[in-house]
Write a structure and sequence with these properties.
With about 325 residues, the chain is α/β, with parallel strands linked by helices. The chain has 3 domains: about 90 residues, Diphthamide synthesis DPH1/DPH2 domain 1 (Rossmann fold); about 110 residues, Diphthamide synthesis DPH1/DPH2 domain 2 (Rossmann fold); about 110 residues, 3-Layer(aba) Sandwich (Rossmann fold). The chain is built from 13 helices and 13 strands. It has a 5-stranded mixed β-sheet, sandwiched between helices. Helix 1 crosses helix 2 and helix 8 crosses helix 12.
Length: about 325
């Protein structure tokens, strides 16, 4: 069965050949590691390159397998599923964005009724659908709507492109639009809903439906308020510093001093990958602040038996900003 994604095999083969790459490391997102055998074998067959496949988790363009690549002594990291994220990467990386080839015209038709009340739409997407933004824009303009595709900002690589950890481009146009439509998946659309006050809708290309994200947003907000209160009441707090170069958000030094000033015991903990087992080893710590990817605390709320909040949420727990500030300016 042909994949709905474009793996750009010919471009990768050409790159390996032209640059005479002797060894390369192939890095795939979790849901696409099943393609590893096919791709590695194909590239070795068509080139003189020896291929390694990263078996470590990969959660985004922020999560490059640079340490593995250096240990293996490869000449190139082939990173699938994301656009460039980190501003300075002192290692050769070939990004394969994996365009989703599935048409969206039927879903656009399906969205017409739900989006009818809104005259001005903000339109964004995950990296796999950037090439479909103009198609969607034209469709809604033909329905008489004014459509805004935000200029890239922050970690976004293209206009209209969103990444999981920040949505500054949406905030720039939030006053101009009545609602946002996100083409892609729940992960990116929930992030948008937690970042702007506007209604957010998901054009879900994987479940073939249009989803009002505000219901899920309200559920998540209750979870976040509960988690922040738990940290306020905790006697001991663990500050988790992420070791992945692209997943470092906030100052642990600032938080440590401020929590200590409130009479709390604080320990700074380093982790490459957070798991429930790792947290449970610190059996006497009931609350953590993670300074790695801010989506870990939010997305994986039910995975952990301990309370985890983000840097911005920690500022609420400390009284540095108000809960209303998060609601006004976003959690990401």
């Amino acid at each position: 069965m042909e994949s709905r994604f474009d793996f750009e095999e010919a471009r990768v083969i050409q790159e390996l050949t032209d640059k005479k790459i002797k060894k390369a490391l192939l890095q795939l997102p979790e849901g696409l590691k099943k393609e590893a055998v096919r791709l590695a074998n194909l590239f070795e067959k068509e080139t003189s390159t020896e291929l390694f496949v990263s078996g470590e988790t990969c959660w985004g363009g922020c999560d490059l397998a640079l340490e593995e690549a250096k240990i293996l002594g490869v000449d190139l990291l082939i990173h699938y599923g994301h656009a460039p994220f980190m501003k300075k990467v002192e290692f050769p990386v070939l990004y394969v964005e994996m365009q989703d080839k599935e048409p969206i015209n039927k879903l656009l038709e399906l969205s017409k009724k739900l989006l009818k009340p809104y005259k001005k739409l903000g339109l964004v997407c995950s990296i796999q659908h950037v090439y479909q933004l103009e198609e969607a824009k034209k469709y809604f303009e033909e329905q008489g709507k004014k459509v805004f595709i935000p200029t890239k900002k922050g970690y976004a690589y293209y206009d209209g492109h969103v990444v999981g950890c920040e949505y500054n481009s949406l905030k720039l146009i939030s006053e101009k639009v009545d609602a946002f439509l996100v083409i892609g998946n729940q992960f990116h659309s929930l992030g948008a809903a937690l970042s702007v006050k506007n209604p957010v809708y998901l054009l879900d290309v994987y479940n073939n439906e249009i989803v009002d994200m505000n219901k899920l947003r309200d559920k998540v907000l209750k979870q976040r308020a509960f988690a922040i209160n738990n940290v306020k009441e905790a006697r001991k707090v663990g500050l988790i510093v992420g070791l992945k170069p692209g997943q470092q958000f906030g100052s642990f030094k600032l938080l440590k001093k401020k929590f200590q000033d409130q009479g709390k015991e604080v320990v700074t903990i380093t982790m490459r990958e957070m798991t429930n087992d790792k947290l449970m080893n610190f059996y006497d710590i009931k609350a953590f602040v993670e300074l790695a990817c801010p989506r870990i605390a939010i997305e994986d709320y039910n995975k952990y038996e301990r309370t985890i909040i983000t840097f911005r949420e920690a500022q609420v727990a400390l009284g540095e900003i108000q809960w209303e500030d998060l609601l006004e300016h976003g959690f990401l």
